[in-house]
Task: structure prediction
Amino acid sequence: MNPFDELGLAITRRHFFGLGRLGIGGAALASLMAETVERDPKTHGLTGLPHFPAKAKRVILLHQSGGPSQLDLFDYKPQLTKRQGTELPDSIRMGQRITGMTSGQSSLPVASSRFQFTQCGQAGTWCSQLLPYTSKVLDEITVIKTVHTEAINHDPAITFFQSGSQQPGRPSMGAWVSYGLGSENENLPAFVVLVSQQHSLNVDQPLFSRLWGPGFLPSSYQGVKFRSGGDPVLFLSDPAGIEKDTRRQMLDAVNKLNQIKREAYGDPEIDARISQYEMAYRMQTSVPELMDLSKEPDSTFEMYGPEVRKRGSYAANCLLARRLAERGVRFIQLYHRGWDQHNDLPRDLALQCRGTDQPTAALIQDLKQRGLLEDTLVVWGGEFGRTVYCQGKLTEANYGRDHHPRNFCMWLAGGGTKRGFTLGETDDFSYNITQDPVHVHDLQATILHCLGIDHKRLTYKFQGRHFRLTDVHGELVKPILA
Amino acid sequence: MQSFRLGLLGLSILTLRAEVSFNRDIRPIMSDTCFRCHGPDKSSRMMNLRLDIREEALKPNRAGVSPIVPGDPDKSNIIRRIFAANPAQIMPPKAAHKELTEAQKRTIRQWVAEGAKYEGHWAYSPVRRPAAPTEGNPIDSFVLARLAKEGLTASAAADKITQIRRVTLDLTGLPPAPDEVKAFLADDSAGAWTRVVDRLLASPRYAEKQALLWLDAVRYADTCGFHGDNPWPAWPYRDYVLRSFRDNKPFDQFTREQLAGDFLSGVDAWTGSAYNRMTRTSAEGGLQPKEYLAKYGADRVRTTSNVWLGSTMGCAECHDHKFDPFTQKDFYSMKAFFADIKETGLVPDRGKNAWGSLLALPTAAQRDELAELRARIEEMERRMAAQTPPVPAGLLDDVKAGKLAWQFPRPLTAASQNGSKLTIYNEEPLDSMYDFRGSLVSEKKPGHGTIAASGPNPDNETYTVTFKPGAGKWTALGLEVIQDESLPGMRVARGADRFVLTGFEAAVNGRPIPLVLATDNVLYPVPEHPVMAVLDADPATGWGVTMYGEGRNVFLALRLGAPLETSESDVIAIRLRHDSKYRRAVLGRFRVAVSAATYAWPGTTAIGSRDRKTDEEGLPEEALAALKVPAARRTAEESKALAEYLVWASPEFQASEIELANLRARRDMLNAQIPRVVYSDRTEPEITRVLARGNFMDDSGEVVKPAIPAFLGKLPSANPTRLDLANWLVSADNPLTARVFVNRMWREFFGQGLSKALDDLGSQGEWPTHQEVLDWLAAEFMLPRYQGEGAHAWDVKHLIRTIVLSDTYRQSSLPRPEVKAKDPENRLLARQNRFRVDAEIVRDIALASSGLLVEKFGGPSVRPVQPDGYLAALNFPKRDYSASRGDDLHRRSLYTFWQRSFLHPALLAFDAPTREECAVNRVTSNTPLQALVLLNDPEFVEAARVFAQNTLAQGGGSLSQRINWTFQRAVQRPPTAAEAQVLTGLYRKSLARFKASPERARQFIGVGEAPAAAKANPVDLAAMMTVTRAVLNMHETVTRN
Result:
C-alpha cells in the first residue's frame, strides 16, 4: 500500500485546523487531500456527521438574557401565598450561596407570585397569565422546570450557557454546530446572531462577542451578527459611489489577479480566498433579500404583532429567525435582554412579557404552518432563574427577585422534542430540584442530539485536550425526546 | 513495510525508522487514548493501572497478569486487550470514543516486543546543546541532515524581492520601502543580507511587531474584560513590553520584572509587574468576592504556566492533570505564589478606588508641579477650613420656602451651529425614559423648558439658547443635564462615553455676562474635565462627566461676577460649546436655570424629579441635614459640612473660592495627564487552600505554600516568593522556558512551531519535528556561543537573528511536487511557508502602502474608526465609541484600543484574539467577513483613496507607470504583463463609469478624514482608486511568501 494513501486516510481534519497559522480554507481541503474528503463538499460539515439521523436540521435559540422568573411564568407554586412574607426556611436554603445583592439583607421573605396560573392546552401545562399567546401554543412545547447552572452572576452564567464554560475562550454552541455540520445555504453564514433592541423597562445586562465567538475554533465558525441599524452585516454595503456593476468589475479584477498567482504558486489558500470573496459577493445580495420583509403577507405582520415592522425589535428578529430557518441557516441565536427583575418585578416582568409573548408564540405557529417546526428546534430561556425570596422591600403589590441558579425553567419546541410535555419538579419554594434535574450541559447534549450529534464525539483538540461543548459532563435528557 | 508506522499525527509518517521510540511514537498514542484512565490522575484511574510509568505498567495485578511483559507482546495484557475481538474486552472501551488504528496497535505491539523502553518526556528533560557542525548555521545543518534522511533536498533561496519583503514583514510587520528594496537588489556583496537583518533589528518597528506575540500571551488589553468591560489604565505596560523588545532586554530580566517587579527596584520593573494584573476583573454587582478571587488566582496559574512552561496547568484546578504529571496540589501551590498581590474580588471600575493598586508615572516636571499645586491647595484649604461664617438668619426658612430653588425659564429659541436639530419642550409633552433607582421609567410629560437635540449628529457642536428671565436680580446661571435612555453616550451625550462642555458663555441683550465660579454636584468627577475648565480660556478643555454611577441628573452652577438685574423684556442668550476631541460628546437634553439666591448650590435633582421637585433645594445634602439640627446639637462633621457650604457661598470668600477652584482644576488636569498603570502591590499573603473540584466555597482543603510543580523540582527557600518563581523559570533547572519561547518564535518565521502545539509541550503536545534545532536554539538563547559577539544570555534579538540568517529561512516558499507528496504539511522545511499576516499587519500594510501610516512609538491606545453602534450591547455604563482624531486614526494597529468584549471588528475578523485569556497560537482563517473588511471597511476604502492620491501625485505620468508604482508599494515587485493588463482594464472601465456619473466619483473619493488631494480630478482619482483598492485586496498583499 502506498504509505501516502494511508496518510490521507489517517489524518483527521482537526489536525488540519490545528495548523494554526498555515490555515487552509474549507474549500481547499479536497484538493489537498485527494484521497479523502474530510468535509462534505456541499455543506463543509465534518464527514461522519451527523452521527445518527437528525430530527432537527437547525436550531433557533431564543435567549432571554437577565434570568426570567420561573416563579412568575411556569413554575406554579400555589402553596406560597400562605407563606407570603415568611422567612425562607433554612431547611430550604441549606446554606447555599446567594449573591452580594441580597446577602446583606436582614431578611429573606418569601414572595409569592402575583400572577394567576392556569393549565393550558390538551396537555394542561401550567402557565401564568403573563403569557397569553405562549399559553396557546403550549401543546407544541416541552417545559423543563428543573434546569440548573453553575454561575450566579450574569457574565459567567451567560458565558457558561452559551459555551459550556464560565471561562472565556471556548467555542459557543452555534460555533460548535457550524463547525460540525456546516451550512445548508452557500449564500448565508451557518451561524447568525440577532440582538434585539430594548423595548423593555429594565436595565439591560451587557452582552459580549464571546457569546457567539469561535473560541479556539477558527473564526470562520463564529456567529455573524446581523445588526439592527446600519449595515445588517458589518461592511456589507459597497462604499458610496460604487454600485452593483462596478462592484462586480472590481471583484472580477481581484479574482483574476489572485487566479494568476494561484496558477503560479499552486497555493490552495488562494482558492479559498477567491471563494470567500465570492461568498461575500453573494451575501451582498442574499442578506438584503433576507432583510426585506416587503413580500411578507399582512397575515404575517398580524401574527407577530405591531412591533414586527420595527427593525431590530424582538418581534422583527423572531420573524427574521423564521426567514433564516427557511433559508437553511443552521444555528440562529437571538438575544433579548431585560429579564433582570431585581425590583418592581410585577410591573416590569409584565411589560417584558407583553413585548415578547406574541412574537415568540407567532414564531412557533409560523414555523408549524410552514412545516418547519418538524426539523427546527426552538429553545427559549435565560441564564438562570430568580429567587423565591424578595430582593428589597416586599409589599402586597410589589417585589423583586435575585438571581437563582439552582433551578429555572426553559422550554423547547419542535426538532424531535415532545409536544405538550413538562419535565421535572421543584420543591414548594421553587428553590431546589426534587425530581429530574437538567444541568446546562445536559441541555446542550440534548440540543446536539436533536441535530444528530453525539456531544461526546464532537471534539476539538486545544491545549492538549479534546475539548467539547459539554466539557466532561452532559447526559442526554431522554424523557423530552419524542 | 515493517518499519512503517502510522501515529495519530500525520507527522509520524515521516519517521521511517526501525526502532520505535516511546517519546516519538508511543507517548502521543497513549496520552490520547490510555492516560485518561491509566495515567497521572488518581481520581479517574481505573483498575489501579498506570501506564505512564514503566514500573507500574510491569506490575502484575492480583490475578498475576502483567499489563506489559517487555519483549513478549503475547504475554502482555495490554496487547491482548487492544487487539481483542470481543467488544466487551477491547481497549480503549467503546464508550471512550478513542479507537486505535490498526497501525497504532501494531506500533504498540512492536514497542513491547522491542522491550517496552520508556523515556522521560522530551520537554521535561534538561536542555542539552546538541553537537553542531563547526561550519555554517547549525539550523541549516540539522534541517538538511533530516531532509537527506527522507530523500528530500532544500529549496533554493527565494528571489531577492521575496526575501526582503518576507524578512521586513517578519521582523517589523511592515512592507519594505521602495528604496530599501532597491538598495538590497543593488547590493551583491557578501554581507548584504546580514546588513538588512541588522538594520531591521535596530528599528523600533521590530519591537512593534515582536510585542504582538507577547501581548497576546500575557492577555494585555485596555478594558477589564468582565461585565461592564470598562477601560482601565494598562497601556504603560504595553509600552514597557515595547521598550523591552526594542532595547533587547534579556529575557530573564523581562521575566523577573513581570512576575515580580514589585520585588525589584525601578519604575520599569514595577510597570512590568502589571503582568500580574492583566487578569480579567469584575465589578458586577452582587458578585461573591471569594469566588472572583479564586477566578483571578486561577487565571494567573493558567497564564503563567502557559506563557513560560508551555503547560496546561489549568487542567489541574479541579483534579490532577490527566496527561502530564501536574497534580492538583501543584496548581494551588503555584497559585500561592500570587497570594500576596493586593486585590479585591470586586475590582471597582469607577471612583477613587478604581482598579485597585495603580502606579503613577509622572515626569520629573509633572511631579514637581503637582507637589507645588498640592501644597498650595492644602494651605488654602487649611486657611478656609478655619473659617466658620455665621449661619445667616432665616436660611432654613428660606430653604423651606423654596427661595434657594433654581428657576427654569422657558427658552425662546434654541439654535445649533453645525446642524443638530434642537427642539424646545416648554409645555409640550416630551417622551422620556430614564433609570430611576435601578428600573426604567417611561413617561410623556411637559418638558418644562427642556431642550432636546435630534437629527444630524456632528462631532462638535455649539448651541445657543435664549430666554427671558423676567424682572429680577440674578446671582447665578445653571444648567441641568437630563439623562435619557435614547442617548447613546452614557445616556446624556449624543455619542462618546461622556459629555464635555468646553465653554459656557452668557450675554444679556448682547452684553457679555461675566461668570466667575463653576460648581457641580457630580459624584465621580473626571480629573480630565474639572468643572472650572468650562470657564477657562482653553477651547479644548471643559466640564465633562462620564455619568457612570451618577444616578441623578447632574447640574452646573455658574456664579455671576456681579448680580444681574433684568426687566421683563431683557433677553439672556447662553452659548454652550462642545469643542473637545471626543466626538459627539455633545449634550442631548438639558435645561437652563437661573437663581436669585445668594446661596444656591447646584440643584440636587434626582432623575425624573422634574415633577417631584422638593422645594428644599439649594444646599448640599449634608449641609441641609446639618442646618436642620439645632446649632448646639450639631456634630463636628455636621458643623464642618455647613461651614464649608457657607464659605463657598459667602461673598467675602469668593475670591479665595475661585482661586482654590482654579488650583484644583489645574491639579486635576495635570493628574489626568500623568499615565497610570495597574501593577502588583504586595500585601500579607492570603491563605491558599486546595479547592476540592475547584469549589471556592469549600474551606476544607489542604493549606499549601508556594511551590513549583513537584516533578520539576523544589525551590531551596522555605518560603519562596514570586521572585524565586521567576528566577527558577529562567534557570538552567527549568527545561521548559527556553524551549517554549524558541518554539513560539519559530512560528513567527516559519508559520508554525517546531512542535506545532505552541500551547502545550506536554504529553498531549507534539514531538518536535527537529528536536536538535529546538534544543540547540534553546541552549543558544540561554547562552550564546554561535556568532555570539556582543550577545548576552537570554538574548531575544540574537535568537531571531540566528534564525533569519539561516539558509532555511531564506528558501523559496514555492511548492515542489516531490515535497508536497512526501511532506504535505511541509514540516521538514524543504521550503519556506506562505501565510497570511496577522490581523494588525493586514491593516498596517494597507496604511503603509497607501502612505497613511503615522508612526509614533508608544503612548495611549488609539481608536481607529469603527462602525456606529458596535458597542450597543454593552452596559454598565451604556456608551458609544468615539474615534480618535487626526494622526491617531492611522497609527499602527497594535496601538488600537483593545476592548475585550467587542474587539475592533477588523482585528476580530482577521483572528486577533480578544485577550480575555492567554492566547499563544493565533489560528488563521479565511472568511467572507475578511473580504468584506478589505473591500468595504471605510478604513480600507480611505487607504485606497489616499493610495490613489499618492499614485497620481508621485507614480509617474502614464497609466502603466502608475500601476507599476502602486504594485511596487503593496507587494514590492512590478506587475507581470497579465497583471498589468487586468488592472489597466479595470482602470479603463472604471474611468468610463465615473465619467458617465461624476457624482458617484465624488462620493467614492469622499471616504475618510485624511486630507483630500487638492488638485486631483475626481473622476481620475476615483478610477485610480478602484485600482489601488484591487491591489489592497490581493491575496498576495496580505500574504507573506
Remarks:
- The two ends of chain B are 37 Å apart (CA to CA).
- The first strand of chain B starts at residue 358 and ends at 360.
- The first helix of chain B runs from residue 22 to 33.
